[in-house]
Each structure stands twice: as structure tokens, then as C-alpha cells.
Amino acid sequence: MRFDVITLFPELFEPFMQHGVTRRAYESGALQVRLWPLRDFAEGPYRRVDDRPFGGGPGMVMLAEPLRRCWETIRAERAQLGLPAVPTLLFSPQGQRLEHAVVAEQAQASGAILVCGRYEGIDQRFIDQCVDGQISLGDFVLSGGELAALALLDAVARLLPGVLNDALSHQQDSFNPAIAGLLDCPHYTRPERWCGPQGEAAVPEVLLSGHHARIEAWRLQQRRDATLRLRPDLLPAPCAPVADSKR
Ligand SMILES: C[S@@+](CC[C@H](N)C(=O)[O-])C[C@H]1O[C@@H](n2cnc3c(N)ncnc32)[C@H](O)[C@@H]1O
């Protein structure tokens, strides 16, 4: 799997690729990330990648032409290496929300060309002609698409075999279909009794019991309770009552 990332700030990616469990995904080659500094594809003495918006207004807009040149270079390189054709995804507040289903789909795919916007955004003509899908991190505005790209890459890396210490670990995570898309249960570790600012707190007794079935039942109930309390939208909608035809 290879992601090609078009960005004005490639240096933002490197620290994330060198630390943590996801580093294994990059080191093993399970997840390849090729960074493409957009300025390398700009022309002129100032290597401009942006200009003022037609129609006036604040801010600058990313030029379509350096993006096209970079995008075509990526596609040509991928073809030359025999890599499969992949979709081009733009990070944008207007895109589809980045959720587990999107991450799981990407973890099964061959990669993508990821476009990180900056400034007021990208010339719409590049989006219309070269972009297949748009992904949003949420209903807020970031300064650039790099954090969103990193979020996607990190979440994909966690799902790849051999990246987490325990292969089944991600299946216990919130939103995973293996736990019916529920939220995760609470976790505890040593010491058994801990004194916090609100007094002494003990680990739930069941977790110390060594009784595997009881522990699993407790965790399932905790997941259901947490989901109902914090994210009821994740639970299946209750069935509508059947109309009584005899009335
Ligand atoms: C300052 S933003 C532009 C926001 C744009 N004018 C708007 O209001 O929709 C610059 C870039 O950051 C990225 N970005 C900002 N917010 C984002 C979000 N919620 N999710 C994904 N990418 C985002 C996009 O790539 C965007 O082109």
C-alpha cells in the first residue's frame, strides 16, 4: 500500500513517521508514504503556489497548475513502478467525515493520492478534474490538510497486520465492527487502589477475579452503557412499534 501526499509542508509528516507504534508500519514497508513537496512543481523565481482569488476577497488560493504537474508526476511514477491506479483524495471541511468505515476501507485498498490544501483552499478546476473524493476531519477549519492526512495515515496504520503489539488490539477499539461499533470499555492498571483528588478509588472487583467470562460480560455491559450515555447515535435505531390492526 502506498500513499502519495501532496503538501507544502512535508517536514510536518516526518516526526509522526518516526515515532510510536505506527513507525513499524512505515519501517516494515506495509505502509509506504511518499511525500511530494508542492513547491518543487511551481515555476518562476519565487516558485509561487498561490495567487489572489478572482472576484476579490481575503486570502490566497492554491494554483491549479503546480498541483496538476505534481499529480501527473505521481501518476506517471506509480504507473512506471507497476503500482495500481488509486483515487485522489482531497482533505477539506466540505468532505465526507473521517470515520472508522473510511479508515477500514483505506486499510484494505492499495493507497491513494492525498492532497493537503492550504490558504483559502484550492482552485476549483483542479478539484473538478483531478479529485475523486474529499475527506473532512470534522466541522471545524484547520490551517491545512496535513493534520487530516496524518490522522488518516495513523488510523490506517493501526489496522494493518503486525503494526500493533497484539494483533487483535484494534478489534477492541471504539467503533470496530468486532465490538458491534460500540465505544471502548474503561481500562484500569496498577495499583489496585489509587488515591486521587476526590478520594480513594478501587479497580472494579470483577477485573481482579480472573473469571474470563464474567470479565467479558462486564466489558460488554460497560461498552453498551458508555455508548448509550456518550454516543447514542452509534446504537441501532429502536424498531417502531407494530401498528395494532385490530383496533
Ligand atoms: C484554511 S482551510 C480552507 C477552508 C475553506 N476556506 C473553507 O472554509 O472550507 C485550508 C485547508 O485546510 C484543510 N482543512 C481545513 N479544515 C479541514 C477539515 N476540517 N478537514 C480536513 N481538511 C481541512 C483543507 O485542505 C483546506 O483546503
Describe the structure.
The chain has about 250 residues and is of the alpha/beta class. It has two domains: about 1-160, Alpha/beta knot; about 170-235, Trp Operon Repressor, Chain A (Orthogonal Bundle), CATH 1.10.1270.20. Helix content is about 30%, strand content about 15%. The protein has helices at about 15, 20-30, 65-80, 100-110, 125-130, 145-160, 210-230, and strands at about 1-5, 30-35, 50, 60, 90-95, 110-115, 135, 195, 200. The strands form three sheets. A five-stranded parallel β-sheet has the order 2-1-6-5-7. Strands 3-4 form a two-stranded antiparallel ribbon. Helix 3 (about 65-80) packs parallel to helix 5. The N and C termini lie far apart (about 60 Å). About 25% of the residues are buried. S-adenosylmethionine binds near residues 92, 116, 117, 120 and 141.
List the helices and strands and how they pair.
Blueprint: E1 2-7, H1 14-17, H2 22-28, E2 32-37, E3 50-51, E4 61-62, H3 64-80, E5 88-97, H4 100-108, E6 111-115, H5 124-130, E7 133-136, H6 146-159, E8 193-196, E9 199-202, H7 212-230
Parallel strand pairs: 1-2, 1-6, 5-6, 5-7
Antiparallel strand pairs: 3-4, 8-9
Helix pairs in contact: 3-5, 4-6
The structure holds S-adenosylmethionine.
Keywords: Cytoplasm, Methyltransferase, S-adenosyl-L-methionine, Transferase, tRNA processing
Domain tRNA methyltransferase TRMD/TRM10-type: 1-235
InterPro entries: Alpha/beta_knot_MTases (IPR029028), tRNA_m1G_MeTrfase_C_sf (IPR023148), tRNA_m1G_MeTrfase_TrmD (IPR002649), tRNA_m1G_MTases_N (IPR029026), tRNA_MeTrfase_TRMD/TRM10 (IPR016009)
